[in-house]
Write a structure and sequence with these properties.
The longest helix has 24 residues. The N terminus is likely disordered. The chain has two domains: 70 residues, 434 Repressor (Amino-terminal Domain); 60 residues. It is 55% helix and 0% strand. The chain is globular and about 45 Å long. The protein contains seven helices and no strands.
C-alpha cells in the first residue's frame, strides 16, 4: 500500500480502495449467480469441496468480505464456468480454457447460450424492449466470455 508523505496523499490508497471494493462486489456477484437455482444451482459447500478451499474462506469471498487471491481463483477454474469467473476480470477480458481443451459440444452450447440470451435481450417484451438493458448487457458479456471472445 502506498503511504502519504507529510500529510499529502497521492490518491493511490483511495484508488486501491475503489478497486478492492469492485473486486469484492464482483466476487459476491459470481457466487450469487453460481448459487442461483435458476442459473447454476450450486452451493457454497459444494464449490468449496470441489475447489479444495475451506468453506469459511469461500464464504468470506462469496459475501464480499475478503478479497480472493489468485490462488483461490486458480482453484475455482474447472469448478465454476469460465464465463462466470470472467466477471472477476476487467471489461474486455475473459477466462477461457486452452483451445485444445474445448470440446466442440461445449463450444456449440456456449454459442447457443449467447444467441438465446441475445434474442431474449432484443425481444420487445424484454426488460428494456428491443434495447439492451445494463443487466442484459452484463449477461451478454458473461456469455461472450464463455466463447473466449473479447469486445
Amino acid at each position: 500500500m502506498a503511504m502519504a508523505w507529510h500529510g499529502r496523499g497521492c490518491g493511490i490508497m483511495a484508488h486501491d480502495d475503489v478497486i478492492s471494493r469492485r473486486v469484492r462486489e464482483a466476487q459476491a456477484r459470481v457466487f450469487r449467480v453460481a448459487c442461483d437455482p435458476m442459473r447454476f444451482g450450486l452451493t457454497l459447500k459444494l464449490i468449496a469441496i470441489d475447489a479444495g478451499l475451506p468453506y469459511s474462506t469461500l464464504r468470506g469471498y462469496a459475501h464480499g468480505e475478503t478479497e480472493m487471491p489468485l490462488s483461490a481463483l486458480v482453484r475455482l477454474c474447472g469448478v465454476l464456468p469460465a464465463e462466470l469467473l470472467s466477471v472477476l476480470l476487467p471489461d474486455g477480458w475473459a477466462i477461457s480454457p486452452a483451445a485444445d481443451e474445448v470440446c466442440p459440444d461445449t463450444l456449440a452450447m456456449a454459442c447457443s447460450d449467447f444467441t438465446r440470451a441475445h434474442a431474449e435481450a432484443r425481444h420487445p417484451a424484454s426488460e428494456d424492449g428491443c434495447a439492451i438493458s445494463p443487466a442484459e448487457a452484463e449477461t451478454l458479456r458473461a456469455r461472450r466470455a464463455g466463447l473466449g471472445v473479447a469486445k
